[in-house]
Amino acid sequence: MTILIGVLCQDGVVVGADSSATFGAGPQYKTIEQKCKKVEVIDEKVIVAGTGQVGLGQRFNYVVQEYWKEKGFQKHYLEVGRELSAKCISNFASSQVAKGQYGSLLAYTAGGKYHLCEFAISDFQPEFKDSNMWYVSMGSGQLIVDPFLGLLRKVFWGDSPPRCNEGIFYVAWALQHAIELNPGGINEPMQIAVLQLAGAGNIKARCLNEQELSEHLDHVRGVNEYLAKYKDILQGRIGDVDVKLPEPPTKEK
């Protein structure tokens, strides 16, 4: 079970996931739950995150790595999505994998622009996020996260994507929401990777370290506490609302 979240930002891409892998003795019986890595960074330029069978994720990551070595990402972004979809469907078909077993999020740059592509679980066809719909969630936690992301758009985003530093915070908030409310199989620690300009004109993909994640989670706790105090306003105790929010995480590390 998994939750993946991707946000195409004004100045980059943010991709996050939980860290839970569920072992099973057949499709109906789950045995144990272990931590695993669901967000991979390839050559500091590409972010891959997957939901579904771990073995299929390993195979897709290999396909993406080979495609990177072949300089496939220099093509038009739509062609990148089409070719990776075809390559992976062929790879899966070679061992008779049925449709609906694996889905993925892919973040990269092409043509000087950032791209976030969803490879749907149902048929592994690529769908690119854009300025009209710039966020996505996948996995068993989607029913929990999609309404939350819709609320974030209504309250915070409006009609324009956030910047990366805000995007990291929103992804951390949504992941924490899913981890706390899910009925099982989605667990911490959360993993978040970002693709953005890292200085000197160099675009870099990297995973956030524990300190960076901790800063954003501190801010999530502060916002939750602030919102919880709104009941004091509703009850007429406006003067009692006094919650100090933590300082926002820094933009660069």
What does this structure look like?
- The chain is of the alpha+beta class.
- It folds into two domains: 205 residues, Aminohydrolase, N-terminal nucleophile (Ntn) domain (Glutamine Phosphoribosylpyrophosphate, subunit 1, domain 1, 4-Layer Sandwich); 38 residues.
- Strands 10-1-2-11-12 form a five-stranded antiparallel β-sheet. It has a five-stranded antiparallel β-sheet with strand order 5-6-7-8-9, covered by helices on one side.
- Helix 4 packs across helix 5.
- The radius of gyration is 19 Å and the shape is globular.
- The two termini are 32 Å apart.
- The relative contact order is 0.18.
- The mean pLDDT is 90.
Secondary structure layout:
Elements: E1 4-9, E2 12-17, E3 20-24, E4 30-35, E5 39-42, E6 46-52, H1 54-69, H2 77-93, E7 102-110, E8 113-119, E9 126-128, E10 135-138, H3 142-157, H4 164-181, E11 191-197, E12 203-207, H5 210-228, H6 230-234
Antiparallel strand pairs: 1-2, 1-10, 2-11, 3-4, 5-6, 6-7, 7-8, 8-9, 11-12
Helix pairs in contact: 1-2, 3-4, 4-5
Order of secondary-structure elements? EEEEEEHHEEEEHHEEHH
Per the principal axes of the C-alpha atoms, what is the gross shape? globular
**Average of the residue pLDDT scores:** 90
Strand order of the largest sheet: 10-1-2-11-12
Q: Which structural class should the secondary elements be placed in?
A: alpha+beta
Largest sheet: 5 strands, antiparallel
User: Into which percent range does the helicity of residues fall?
Assistant: 25-40%
What quaternary form is this?
A: single chain
Measured distance between first and last alpha carbons:
32 Å
Please work out how many helical segments DSSP would assign.
Answer: 6
CATH 4th-level superfamily of the largest domain = Aminohydrolase, N-terminal nucleophile (Ntn) domain
